[in-house]
Every structure is written in C-alpha cells, then in structure tokens.
Design goal:
Blueprint: E1 2-7, E2 10-18, E3 23-26, H1 34-47, E4 53-57, H2 62-71, E5 78-80, E6 92-97, E7 104-109, H3 111-117, E8 121-129, H4 133-145, E9 148-158, E10 168-173, E11 176-177
Parallel strand pairs: 4-5, 4-8, 8-9, 9-10
Antiparallel strand pairs: 1-2, 2-3, 3-11, 6-7
Helix pairs in contact: 1-2, 3-4
Bound molecules: adenine (ADE).
Organism: Sporobacter termitidis DSM 10068
InterPro entries: PRTase-like, PRTase_dom
Keywords: Glycosyltransferase, Transferase
Length: 184
Amino acid sequence: MVYPITVAGVKRDLPLCKLNETMHIAAFVIFGDVELTVKSAEALLKKAPEFDYLVAPEAKAIPLIHEMARQSGRNEYFLARKATKLYMNGVFEATVRSITTQGEQKLYMDGADAAKIKGKRILIIDDVISTGESLRAVEELVNQAGGNIAGRMAILAEGDAVERNDIIYLEPLPLFDKDGRPVK
Ligand SMILES: Nc1ncnc2[nH]cnc12
C-alpha cells in the first residue's frame, strides 16, 4: 500500500507502515532523495519568515536544514542532537515522545551553539511535524539558549498538526486506519 503525494512539484509514493494495531502512517523519508530535498528546501525558503539561524532536530531533517542553509547563503546551522558527544560542552536537554520512536527520547543542545543562538531569530525546521513533540523539545532548547523563535517550518504536517496555524508547511499528510484508509 502506498500514498501518492506531490511535494514542491515532486511526486512520490509513500509506503504505508503499521504504527500499532489501529493505525498506519505513510513513511516520508528524505534521506537519499536529492531532488525532493532540494525542491522542498527551495519551496520552504520562499515561505520563510526572516531569520538569523536555522535549527533542526537530528536526524531526518539534516539534509533539509543543510540544503536550506546552503540555498539561503548561510554557512552555519545548528542541530538538536539525539545523544551527547564527548566534544560537546555545557550541554542541556529536553524530553521528547515521538510517534515513530518507542518510549522517551531526549534532545540535547551544545553550549557553544547555544551561545551563538542567544538573542538571534531562530527558524525551526523539520521534515514532518506530527505530534509536535520534537518541535516542542527543540523550541524548549532554543528558549533555554535565549534565542527568539522566528518561525516553525516542515515539509509535511501530519494528522492533528494539519490544523496548526503556528507552523508553515508545504503539504498535509493524513494518518491511516488499520486497513490503510486515510483518517485525518
Ligand atoms: N509519516 C512519517 N514519516 C516519517 N517519519 C515520521 N515521523 C512522524 N510521522 C512520520
């Protein structure tokens, strides 16, 4: 079962994956898809508010944030990491409950990145916003760093996120029932 979608003029068939006993999701993964990443970045930048820095959660949004930074002539962007690394200092964290990951997950921000974010206009980027949990966690980290949220953008808004008016996105993505019928 697939869900056909056109994003920024690019057509893809998203495979339906079982999430639990009652729901399926249409998997949207930009990893390895250069055309989709480049065109989505272009389309999002056309709709973007003014910003100083882009920030995204690890991992699926990394090609997108890189391409958006490159196209907008910015040489630096920041990631909320899924794990701390020994080269990170002054790290702080926020907790996430994701739709695709079991249980709790944490996101971490490096202190050196936080110092650059302080007082700057920050545009938060993700590939898909669904429950809004990772977005909320990134926002918490940006706030802790003293950054000002300039906007929240994603390629797709899924399920309830479709009705949010505080995010800018390119296309809606439904959730699907146990038989693969779109529900929302
Ligand atoms: N439909 C989807 N595809 C891939 N990752 C997701 N995360 C949340 N919803 C998703």
